[in-house]
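Protein modeling request. Please complete all fields; requests missing the sequence field cannot be processed.
Requester role: graduate student
Desired output: 3D structure, token encoding
Chains: 1
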Amino acid sequence: MSNEITIPEEIITNKIYLIRGLKVMIDRDLAELYQVETKYLKRQTKRNITRFPDDFMFELTKEEHETLRSQFGTLKQGGHSKYPPYVFTEQGISMLSSVLNSDIAINVNIQIIRLFTKMREVLISHKDILLELEDMKKNISTQDERIDMVFDYLTKFITQEEEKEPIRKVGFKTKKG
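Delivered output (177 residues):
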């Protein structure tokens, strides 16, 4: 694509929120990235609602919306919609490019999906590291038990040696000693 737009990863990452245990992006942030009005994005979503099941897109509750608004600090009057926003999961974001059908939407979607994939890979690698550490911890505790057992045997052996009567020398005795 000749008119390809590249958005820095930090900008996209800062627009990803954890809501209801899911990584999501808010409709107005996506509209800004796609360079369309939020009402257009919402209208296209509503027209194609069958493409957006609950695990792709959902509307925030009033409480979630208020919590989210409070995170942004003081808002100027009329600066944000009075209606709770739609939030989109990775799959919903992927579906958006087909309903918006613009080169910018497609290009931005590719960047967002690549970022979600990268985040998932990081999480998986961290999980693998955690599993390896757990295995090492188990091995270390097993080794500790074995070392303790060796020390117990050595302690028993030494105390048994000390308790024995001195060994009398066998053999010919001289008058010197």
